[in-house]
Amino acid sequence: ETGVTQSPTHLIKTRGQQVTLRCSSQSGHNTVSWYQQALGQGPQFIFQYYREEENGRGNFPPRFSGLQFPNYSSELNVNALELDDSALYLCASSSLTGKRGYTFGSGTRLTVV
Amino acid sequence: AQTVTQSQPEMSVQEAETVTLSCTYDTSESDYYLFWYKQPPSRQMILVIRQEAYKQQNATENRFSVNFQKAAKSFSLKISDSQLGDAAMYFCAYRTIIQGAQKLVFGQGTRLTINP
Predict the structure, then answer these.
(1) What's the gap in Å between the CA of B7 and the closest CA on chain A?
(2) What pLDDT score was predicted for residue A109?
(3) Which residue in A90, B24, B91, B105 is a FRET match for A34, CA 20 to 30 A apart?
């Protein structure tokens, strides 16, 4: 049973640039969620994808967008990067209900300078 | 809105002893799920234990157990026989539904140090 893999592990971008983060879901999971974890904080929900469509979003602006592919892998895109976007971005896969818990990847550390 | 509060930013315990991490939450739902996650320096969130609110019996997983007090909206984690590998950030989380999506609401975390 494969876990959740995220790439890249670290990334440095300049303010105003665009970034794409990638995530492969755990075998048997059809739902992917993305979280932003600022330093010293708990993760914050960005959005969730199921059947290749976004089916719920947290308090994040539209410049945060995503995709889910037929193999359930996912991308997180952030446009017009701001300094406050510097954080650890975590991907989590689960069944649709999420009742048995979520399997997280090790995250992508994004630094915006 | 659901909120999760972890009032202990840091805790420490001697190896082989027992430690309890506190968590309270706020919700108007009657059926929900609660989780404790561990985040070591590797950054990956690892599920430690989960509790279904409709079950009165407290969940246990080997050395990890919870004290779930539904009326008080309290969900503490007890780690018995603490080991050096237990050192990590611990996050309490509540599963809720937003716009049809399942999402986790996390607390601020408790940093656990194990003293040899």
Answers:
(1) 13
(2) 97
(3) B24
